[in-house]
Write a structure and sequence with these properties.
7% helix, 3 helices, mainly beta
Length: 164
Amino acid sequence: MGTPAETATGAQRGQMLTFRLGAETYGVDILRVKEIRGWSPVTRIPHSPPHMLGVLNLRGAIVPIVDLRLRFALESAEYSPLTVVIVLSLRTAEGVRECGIVVDGVSDVVDIPLESIKESPAVGGEPRSRFIRGLANVEDQMLILLDAEELVAREAAPELSAVA
């Protein structure tokens, strides 16, 4: 018998938490998700980039909060009761760090066969974004899979941003 991530045929599968930003659906590895919480105001940090909204005190841990709409240069949206913060637990060179990402809403958890994940194409002559893990088609909808560690590497490990 295989692990829960294997089907009866032995094919490897990954579980992704899907969420919306505008009209697009994104996914992040469910194993990186620590918690999902409603929007609450954050403490702004001076001289931080616009997508870095500030920090939250989450049970004694100071967690940086990133607005993915601003990070992806999308049109900003008003925060509403449906706006959520996905708190991610990330592996960095310094150990496990937490970072929150603000999204329009959480959709579902989906199983994706790992062999069905396609590399994202270069667009406009630019290489694919380092934080896009790949693309997958789920129920006739294109899902953009994100690499959580790359997506918020600078926010989760600020000491690395001086090097990068």
